[in-house]
Amino acid sequence: LKAIAEAPCKVIITGEHFVVHGGTALAAAVGRKVRVEVSEGRALSVASDRFVGAPPLDPIRAVLAEMKRRHGTESRLSVSIASEIPPGAGLGSSAATMVALASAVARFSGVELAVGGVVASAMAGERVLHGNPSGIDPNVCARGGVLTFTPGRDPSEVPLDGRRVFLVVQSGRRRSTRKLVSKVSEMKRRRPHLFAGLAAAATDVTSLAVERLRAGDMDALGRLMTYNHAVLSAAGASDSGLDGLVDLLISLGCPGAKLTGAGGGGSVLAVPPTGKEKSVLSGLSARGINAFRAELPVEGVHSWLS
Ligand code: MEV
To answer: Which of 7, 63, 172, 208 could form a disulfide with 100 if both were Cys (CB 3.0 to 4.6 A apart)?
Structure first.
């Protein structure tokens, strides 16, 4: 008997970093997935298509310990991870993995776990990896769809009346969320007034972005995202490579683009010009840049027995 869970990755549409400091961010699940299988083992063993050597066990152990503590689940398990999500790319690869793991372990142990319980256990692994995460990533990967997130409040679903299309463009440079979060936090410590202004702007942009996304006004949403990129850049999350990608996407006809996730490398999220995603994607591929089309909304984690 084995239990299988699949979780999607995520993009942050507006508000990352400032959400760590109490702001509100808008995020969505995206169709690339991680699949985690668990079956009985004599001790914990983990296999992953992601790592040449042994995968890092500490975050996995932390999730299993949290699951055991809260729900009495088994932790001597054989775990296998297969992922389509590029790691270190700002797309929540670790959160998706931790969420799928918690969900598969619950299924394997016959524990009915509500989505909040999956997130709570996944957070134990996220804390090992990222230090002080806001919790937005596991919430999006577990719940799916589109949501706004403010620390300390329940995430709020943003219902859409149809599909919305974005492009996820990869800088090809991996980076550490932990380092970028501490770089921006350091900027807050050194320049508290300037940071407060940027944080207020980011939260305002999020509420405007929710309205525009719901209305399907993707051009206006794109412009808000470019503005948010400038705000993130002022807080220290961008670099010349990401600024260059944003400029390139706009020169290829996109109404707007911004870094997504922690920045410092990773990915850029763009709104493509209506009906012209293919021409933007081929313009990027001609320059050797990897990108994919992301259509919202996408379902959250689900699990089953096999
Ligand atoms: C990472 O996807 C988003 C950040 O805001 C960190 C966090 O919220 O934990 C940079």
So the answer is: 7
